[in-house]
Amino acid sequence: MSPEEGFAGARRSMVELQLRARDIVDERVLAAMERVPRELFVPERARDHAYEDAALAIGSGQTISQPYMVARICELLALTGRERVLDVGTGSGYQSAVLAELVSDVVTIERIPELAERARRSLAAAGYGRVDVRVGDGTLGVRERGPYDAIAVAAAAPGAPDSLYEQLKRGGRLAIPVGDRQSQRLEVIVRSPEGPAVLRSVPCRFVPLLGEEGFPGAGADLSEGPEAGEAF
Fold it and tell me: In sequence order, what are the beta bridge partners of 210?
């Protein structure tokens, strides 16, 4: 069996055992997760672990999220295919790749230039070079490319950043882990004429969202000890 065949088999097992068996029901999301080569988005030394049910360190104190969390965020955004989506916290680029399988236009922003460049290369190698990768403060979004039908945030914030909510279209959805630095719940905030409507999902643990409207400073690195980007 070639390495490519081995990884393809691991992807199928991931979808069936980690996602479908754990309540991910959106068939478009399941198909996208089966198509994206996760092994291309982890450090080469960790590729044998790419399809484990866990987040993995990618350097710079950041992680690639657990497959279940990526699928859960994508499912909660309720995407149909024509949307423009902002992915905050590019990291490895994996979640951006999954989103690119689901919608026509993906913009992603990463505060660490080295990670953004590495993600660009990984996205191109995996066939997702059309993803627009930006460097900057993710808490402020990418206003010039908005408004967005949906925004996915792969880092925890004390509350939903106002700038991100303002960049949503009416009826748009923002999926974001909200809580303190140690534990959070994944929330979906829907923009409505009456104001934000908040839906809560699973308990989770993510690295902190740093920036003007997130947590200040470097603070605690949640990638030490249990990996961040996982459901409890």
Answer: 215
Q: What is the pLDDT of residue 222?
A: 38
DSSP the chain: --HHHHHHHHHHHIIIIIIGGGT---HHHHHHHHHS-GGGGS-GGGGGGTTSSS-EEEETTEEEPPHHHHHHHHHHTT--SS-EEEEE--TTSHHHHHHHHH-SEEEEEES-HHHHHHHHHHHHHTT-TTSEEEES-GGG--GGG--EEEEEE-SBBSS--HHHHHTEEEEEEEEEEEE-SS-EEEEEEE--TTS-EEEEEEEEE--B-BSTTSB-SS---TTSSSPSSEE-
Q: Give the C-alpha separation, 38 to 32, whole Å.
A: 11
65 carries an active-site annotation: yes
Active-site position among 2, 13, 65, 122:
65
Domains of the chain, with CATH numbers?
53-231 (3.40.50.150)
Q: How do residues 5-39 score in pLDDT, each as one tens digit?
A: 899 999 999 999 999 999 999 999 999 999 999 99
> Would you say residue 41 has pLDDT above 80?
yes
pTM over 0.90? The answer is yes
CB–CB of 153/174 below 8 Å?
yes
